Each structure stands twice: as C-alpha cells, then as structure tokens.
Request: fold
Amino acid sequence: MTPERTLREAHPTERAVGIACYVSGADGIGGRLRESPEDFRVRELEAFDAEPLDADPGSYPELVLRATLRDWDTNDFARRLSDALGISRERVSWAGTKDKRAVTTQLFTVRGVDADELPEIRGADIEALGRAGRSLSFGDLAGNAFEIRVADAVDDAPERVADAVRDLRGFAGDGETPSDDEGDVPIEATVGVPNYFGQQRFGSRRPVTHLVGLAIARKDPREAVRLYAGNPAETEPDDTRAARDRVDAAFGVSGGGDSDPAADGTGDGNWADCLDAIPGKLRFERSMVHRLADRDVDPGAPPDDEDWWHALEAVPSNLQRLFVNAAQSSLFNRVVSERLRRGLPFDRPVAGDVVCFADGDAPEELYAPDTDRLQRVDADRVDVVSRHCERGRAFVTAPLVGTETELGDDEPGEIEREVLADAGIKPGDFALPGEFDSKGTRRAILLRTDLDVSFEDGDPRFAFALPSGSYATVLLREFTKRGPLDL
Reply:
C-alpha cells in the first residue's frame, strides 16, 4: 500500500462532496468570478456538422443557429426564442446548458423554422449556420473553451499563479518542472488537476443531490424524500429553513451528536401542514409532499414502500437522473481524493488501473478521453500504457459506479472498494426503478489542458479548453483557494 501524503485541505463545502484537498500547495490569489458577464466567456467546441442553409427543409428540418448570449441562462433563452417564434419550446434543442452570468457562444437547432423568421432578442447575437436532419443532443458537445477573469486578486497574484502552475505542470506529467525564472507573464503551460465533479453538480448553497441519490441507491426512498424536501441548510432564507424544519417534523428525525439526522418514521405525518409552510418557490419539494398528502402516507411506512417512490417520482425525469448521477459523482470524487492522498500517479497507470483511450474525433485543442474504449493494465503492461498516457493517447480512469461497472484491481481496486464499502454501496445497488436505474461508466481522473494566463490591471485572465463534462471551477480552485460560495 502506498503511504499517504499530507496535502493542503480543501474547503469544508468541497469536502462534503468528496473533494478532500488541493494538488498545489501555492497560496491562493483570492478574488471573485463573474463580476460582470464579460468576465466569464464560454465558447462551445462542437462535434456537429450542418448542411448549407439552402438545403431541402423536408430532408433537413432543423435550422442550425450559433448564438452568443450575454447574461442569459440557456433554458430561459430557449423559452424566449420559442415564444418569439410562436412555436413549442420542445422544438428548440442544444448540446450543453450554460450559466446565466456569462457570455456564452453555443449552437441551437430549431425545428421547422427558416432563417428569415429569426427574431431579434436583447442580449443575443443569433447567426443562422445551416440545416440538419436531426436536433442537437448532449453528445454533440465535444467541450468548451473558456476565458475567465478573476477580479480583485491579491497584489502578488502573478507570483502565486506561477507557483501554482509549476505544481500543476508537474502533476500533468509535463516533463521537467519549470525553473524559478519561468514566472514571467503571460504564462503558457500544460497543466493538470484531478478531474473532480465541481460543486455545481451537487448544489453550491445546499449540496444535497448526492445524499438523495445515495439514499435512493440504498433503497431508502423515504429518507431520499426527507433529504430533499426537509433537511434545512444554514445558507437558506429563514422561510425556507422553517418549511424544511416542518417537513422534518412530519417525518420524524432522529440522530444528533456525531450522527447525521435521519427520518425514523415517528413524525406527525401532517403533510397538509407542510404544504402550508413550503413556499411556492420550492416547487419540486411541494410536488413531492403533495403526493404524500394525496395518499395520506404514514411516516412510519417501510422506508422502501411504493408510496415513497411515488413521491420521489413527482420531480422531472432529468432531476431523478441527477440524484443518482450526483451520488455516483460524489463517490468518484472520494476515490480520486484517496488516490491523491496515497500519492498514486494521475498521469500514468499503476498495476490494477483501468485506462481509456483518447477520442480521435475531438477538436485539436482538447485532451478528450473516450470512456467507451477501456483496457485493464496489469504489471506487464504498465510501461507500454504509460507511454500512451504520456503522449495524450490514454487516460487513467475511476468508476462512476453502476450495475455494469467493473472495478479495478490491486491498489486502485482496493481504493474503489473501500470507498464503496464506507458509503454502504455496491454496484448492484444501482438496479433501480425507472429513471433511477444506472449501468455506470468510468471517467478519466486527470483533467489536462493547455493554459494561457495573462494579466490586466493586476487581475489574471485564464484561457483554456476542457472536454464536455469537466468543470472550469475545478481548475480555477487551485489558483483561488477560496470556497465555492466565496467566489
């Protein structure tokens, strides 16, 4: 077993979702993100081809658009676009959802619309590119290119950025560590960080989606409903906290001291009173509790009773999947953190690892893994596969655990099994009803990118590209050393 290393501890909010530490020991630059939308620019790297605009609409019914949006949430823009066109929102599709406080450039497809019908929308530059025979989907997004300014960084930010880059360059397996005189700006280097799932996956102010998902995997939908509809967080408004406290009382909550509270079925079950307390802004929580009220569910009903599943299924199918995905993500983060603590490499395999190969169709600026192509690494193959990893042709992986996930061997497999055992989870536990079911997959543990850092009035601007499913904040946290809510 590899001895554990002492690393700089992560923020408590991050540790709650499995992100235990930082790679870089450099002091943080502080600062804030998104002081203005222009501080956070995202451009999609697409894997989607369009026919010319004059292609036959009968064969190519989808109009392909490129929109640059300022201060628009993707879902809100799609709704505004469909309203302006007088069509159903279901006829607008896109590959990746972007945050509102940003300037984003991304593709959309709109079914049954011509280019000359496109409206003018405030804060949006819309360009018709061509036509397609199908709508966009998540698989059409190869990655994203970012330009992000960190405002109000500390005075010695250039030196601290250079120190962090030096650490991250070594972590990426970029050969020789740069000498001290390589701290000049602009900084250009290939860097690497653990490919954690960022805080957005779990909820920044109330990170509970993974806890709901873990309860689902443990076949405890009663606790899953309680965790989502009850379970107040200190960061929430007073009226929300009071409503969640009322829900906890209806379920009955035991625990305290060193244990986390949990539903024990001894509550009053007054779901109508809960509905009176839950504000309208908590619409999904209200939907769950409404189903409990409709069926007058006894809080002492067995934890896996069908009535609890019925209440869980009151939320949209994408949120049902998110619960389980978040549980898988938190377990992945824990596996990655333990590997980091033990000092196992991320840029190359050890015996027992499972690697995936690079996506040959990805844009040139991406280090993009293809987790559909996996290979186990035994002791005889470590050197050969390491050379593939060094050249960006292969990536070490960890599991997103599901029913068909095969765990690693030797020490990597030991880490994976220990994390699952501690969480009380087995791969077969993800054989679940409806949208909760998951076969699982694996995910690259190293997030590598070519980073360019420039400075403007003392504030750093980071430019880099990441594959789809990876988080810009996971890279930036190594530089800022601030908690998710402080940014």
User: Anything to note?
Assistant: Residues 242 and 277 are 8 Å apart (CA to CA). The chain has a mean pLDDT of 93. Residues 317-342 form the longest helix (26 residues).
